[in-house]
């Protein structure tokens, strides 16, 4: 090699190493405060816990929404006791739920699950009715997504302490990972906006989450006009949504969303949306609304919930809820 050529390739080499170091540093910075939370997740949990509050992405912090979590137990085992208004509990290893092992396909959806975390004040703290409850399906590990929603489009709810005309909560299943579950409890202690039931939080169990939504609204939220189901990877334009809902304000039997008509079941085994003939024998799905986001008037929820308890389970939640159940309910 010529002298000059050698110098150039050495220079290129060091620039390459430098860029790699910067990229690594950025990644570590991003995950550092998550790691810090994991480290702290064995510490006692109180409803006034400040440790989640350190991160500057959190804008709206609320306290004292009625949770008491007994830290004597939490610190050493996974026993968690809520106060009397929270009848359910998570026991050692999280598996003393006495729910039978459920093979969901081809089975009637009996929904034998109970709430582990239940923020009953979300609707009933103010007896007055309010406009819109947004329930966001989220998975346990998507802590950052939930933070982001609370501080971006969800701030329409959070600026009013989740007590105004728009309110927001997240729907979770449970996990056997104790430290992840402790983090969920801490998060719920700070924000009081998590609803959790004792079925495993997996993709194939998403329909259970939507049934849990119907159940929770039926049992704990009588004073809302509309309920929206959406996912934690969605951005909702709340002002536009409220404008649209004001046009259908008086309707008590309505579901709104992006309508799919005459969709056919996917019969390719490896496909994400594969549905076997035994799960859904028909050739065409009933018309349904995209699961990315749909709205229903509150009165619809108990009707769909009751019908769901008598209906064969489908793994695609939007087709199950807004297609099969809604058409059965006419
Ligand atoms: C769904 O949850 C139930 C109850 O926890 C569990 O037994 C089942 O394995 C889960 N199903 C899937 C497909 O993850």
From TrEMBL:
Q: Which keywords, in A-to-Z order, does the entry hold?
A: Glycosyltransferase, Golgi apparatus, Membrane, Signal-anchor, Transferase, Transmembrane, Transmembrane helix
User: PANTHER family annotated for this entry?
Assistant: BETA-1,3-N-ACETYLGLUCOSAMINYLTRANSFERASE, HEXOSYLTRANSFERASE
Which EC class is the enzyme in? transferase
Which protein are we looking at? Hexosyltransferase
Q: Name one Pfam family in it.
A: Galactosyl_T
Q: How does it sit in the membrane?
A: Single-pass type II membrane protein
| Annotated family | Belongs to the glycosyltransferase 31 family.
**Where in or outside the cell?**
Golgi apparatus membrane
- Superkingdom to which the source organism belongs: Eukaryota
Question: ATP-binding: present as a keyword of the record?
Answer: no
Q: Which classification does the entry list for the species?
A: Eukaryota, Metazoa, Ecdysozoa, Arthropoda, Chelicerata
Query: What EC number(s) are associated with this protein in UniProt?
Result: 2.4.1.-
Where is the chain membrane-spanning? 9-28
């Amino acid at each position: 090699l010529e002298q000059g050529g050698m110098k150039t390739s050495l220079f290129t080499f060091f620039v390459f190493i430098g860029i790699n170091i910067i990229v690594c540093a950025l990644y570590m910075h991003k995950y550092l405060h998550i790691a810090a939370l994991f480290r702290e997740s064995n510490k006692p949990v109180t409803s006034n816990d400040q440790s989640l509050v350190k991160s500057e992405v959190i804008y709206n912090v609320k306290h004292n929404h009625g949770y008491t979590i007994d830290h004597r137990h939490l610190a050493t085992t996974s026993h968690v006791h809520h106060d009397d208004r929270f009848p359910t509990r998570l026991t050692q290893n999280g598996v003393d739920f006495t729910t039978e092992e459920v093979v969901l396909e081809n089975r009637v959806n009996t929904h034998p699950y109970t709430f582990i975390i239940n923020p009953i004040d979300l609707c009933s703290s103010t007896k007055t009715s309010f406009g819109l409850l947004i329930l966001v399906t989220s998975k346990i590990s998507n802590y950052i997504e939930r933070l982001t929603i609370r501080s971006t489009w969800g701030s329409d709810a959070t600026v009013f302490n989740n007590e105004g005309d728009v309110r927001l909560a997240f729907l979770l299943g449970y996990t056997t990972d104790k430290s992840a579950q402790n983090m969920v409890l801490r998060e719920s202690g700070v924000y009081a906006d998590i609803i959790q039931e004792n079925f495993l939080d997996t993709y194939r169990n998403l329909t259970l989450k939507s049934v849990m939504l119907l159940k929770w609204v039926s049992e704990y939220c009588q004073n809302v006009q509309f309920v929206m189901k959406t996912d934690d990877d969605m951005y909702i334009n709340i002002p536009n949504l409220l404008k649209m809902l004001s046009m259908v304000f008086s309707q008590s039997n309505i579901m709104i969303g992006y309508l799919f008509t005459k969709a056919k079941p996917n019969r390719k085994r490896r496909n994400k949306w594969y549905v076997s003939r035994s799960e859904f024998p028909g050739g065409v799905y009933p018309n349904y609304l995209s699961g990315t986001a749909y709205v229903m008037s509150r009165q619809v929820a108990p009707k769909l919930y009751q019908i769901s308890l008598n209906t064969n389970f489908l793994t695609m939640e939007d087709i199950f809820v807004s297609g099969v159940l809604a058409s059965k309910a006419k």
